[in-house]
Every structure is written in C-alpha cells, then in structure tokens.
Amino acid sequence: MKMVVFDMDSTLIDAETIDELAAIAGVGDQVAEITRQAMNGELDYGESLCKRVSLLKGLSIESANAVIKRLPLMPGAKELVESVKDIGLATAMITCGFMISARHIKDMLGIDHVIANDLATNGGVFTGEVTGNLTEADSKAHALEQLSSKCGIEPCECITIGDGANDIYLFKESGYSIAFHAKPILKQYADVAVDTKDLRAIIPIIRDVSQIDTGRTSRQNRRTPSKC
C-alpha cells in the first residue's frame, strides 16, 4: 500500500460542512434532511448536492469562514494522520465538500493531496452554485484514478476511509476500504467497518493493511481495478 485516502465530512471532521453553513444561512433543517437522505443513498447525489448548495445563495464568505474555523476535528484525526505518515504512506483527501473547508483541514492535519468541489462566489457572497468535478455518485472513483496516476501508483495501492453512500465507488476502486462510523449502505462495500467514533481505532488496521498484497482476488460485488 502506498497512500491512505480520506473522506472529509463526518470522517476527518465531526461535522458536515454544508450543514454548518446552512445553519447560519437560516436553512439548516432543509439542508440537513437532504444531506441525510443523500448519505443514506436515498437521493441521487448530484441532484442533492445542487439542491443543498442552491439554498446557500446570498451567504457571505466572511460568515462562512467564521464557521470553517470552528469545525471540529474527528477524535483521533491528528493521531491517525501522524501514524499514517510514520508508516511511510502518503495521505490524500477526496471530498465532495468544498475547498473553503478542505484547505483548512489540509493545513491542520498536514494532508499531502486534496481534491474537492468549490462554492461559486460573486461580490463576497455565494451564488448558490457548485463548481468542481465531484458532483456525481462515481466522481470520487475517477478522482482516485487521476490522483493515483499523478502519483505514479495504482488505485489498488490505496486504502480508503469514508462514511457515506458517495464513497461506494471510491471503495470499489481502492485496494482496501474502511467504513468509519458509516451508513449501513456503505458497510456492505467495505473490507472492514469501525463503529467506534474515534479514528485512533483505525491505526492498528492501517498498520496491518499497509503490508497487504494488492494483487489479492477481489470479493463479490467489487470491481477489480483493471491495472491490478
């Protein structure tokens, strides 16, 4: 294994960025319900993302930045990232969330690579539009392929960690997957599920899996990366 790829919202941070932004925009309940349905696989992810972002129209960047600074790290996030680096693995974050928070978390934890969407702005406020390539259910898998190619490795040499339905295709593409405090729909695609809401519980798993043979046979319902 060469790299660990994290989701951000409800994985590296103990919050959903869009829900926190919606709360100060006065549309918290509406957005939170759409988020819940999307993460449980009850709504098309791309459609749900556009609906939620549209409700942020008019929110000021200044107000959003104040919220971002208060986003809580998931318990054990710093320790897990430090352990991954000590093992000698690269780190990445692929999130359908937004750069406004992803950059902040990247700097806090020292993540090597970050891929995220962004919120369009005009005159210091959000326009209600999302930009970026992570707007569909399988977008994270494509992002992993591109990042792996850039780093000179294969997707099957990556360990992925996530919690929601939009991580399903990411899990299928990677060599090993860990569902962290995850929705039931994601667990069926994971190699292992960790229900303890503390990322330190993943450290011994990473240590063991870092030596895994990436040429292993794929299990049922999993798509084998073509270059493995």
Short description:
The protein has 228 residues and is α/β, with parallel strands linked by helices. It contains ten helices and seven strands.
What's the architecture of the domain at 3-15 and 71-209 in CATH terms?
Answer: 3-Layer(aba) Sandwich
Reported for the largest beta sheet, the result is: 7 strands, mixed
- The N- to C-terminal Cα distance equals 12 Å
Give the fraction of residues assigned to helices: 25-40%
CATH superfamily of the domain at 3-15 and 71-209: HAD superfamily/HAD-like
Structural class by SSE content: alpha/beta
Description:
With 228 residues, the chain is α/β, with parallel strands linked by helices. It has a domain at 3-15 and 71-209: HAD superfamily/HAD-like (Rossmann fold), CATH 3.40.50.1000. It is built from ten helices and seven strands. It has helices spanning 17-25, 28-39, 45-54, 61-68, 77-87, 99-109, 139-151, 168-173, 184-187, 203-209; strands at residues 3-6, 90-98, 113-122, 125-131, 158-162, 176-180, 192-194. Helix 1 (17-25) runs antiparallel to helix 2 (28-39), helix 1 crosses helix 4 (61-68) and helix 2 runs antiparallel to helix 3 (45-54). A seven-stranded mixed β-sheet has the order 4-3-2-1-5-6-7, with helices on both faces.
